[in-house]
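Below is how a single chain appears once it has passed through the pipeline. First comes the sequence as given, then the structure the pipeline wrote out for it. We keep one example in the README because the format questions we get most often are answered faster by looking than by reading.
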Amino acid sequence: MLVSHTKKFIYIKTVKTAGTSVEVALQDYCLPPDVKLPTENVASDASISNYGIVGARGSDVAQKNEWYNHMPASQIKAQLEPEVWEGYTKICNIRNPWDKTVSWFHFRNPGVKSLPEEEIVAAFRAFMNPEDDSNLTIGLDTHIYFINGVPVADEYIRYDTMSADYNRICQKLDLDAPPIPELKRGPRGKKTVPYQKYYDTELRDRVADIYAKEIDAFGWSF
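Resulting structure:
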């Protein structure tokens, strides 16, 4: 997560949405001019100054910090001054839930990308056990950017229109639109199978039920 006092924005970091890449692209607007954080090895402690806040990254590091990467909006709001929360532009990344679920599968099973397409699909359906929704809910992150059942960001960067949304927001906030680095990408391999091919009707409908609030709020479709 990020807070920039110089450009007056708050970045709420969601999961499996290229959040780390956008976070790293924007972090310099939250730091003193003489401070640089790593961009390749992104694990780091929180940085707090008069310029802003960069939340801690890395699961072990985040647990020791007051400000951390996937911090829920409700907690960010509670820890900021009311005028900052209300007055700054709140931004977050979002992603089609069916696509995000496939992304999580590959993140958890990186070895399958070398398999033939039909074996990848079979492995996905086996991983998403019909008797247990736990793997289907890994990417459910409404608790991060919803408060009391309502999404709280002012601007959204959709995964499928990332470049256009990012550039539009940077222009609105008078940012130089630093390039978005490609971090934590590639687990699906070079020949990406369209996410729709992973699903049978039952799995498609189960994801629709689990992510109903997001689908309703943002108009996602299969």
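The chain has two domains: 2-95+141-172, 97-136+187-218.

See the next section for the split statistics.
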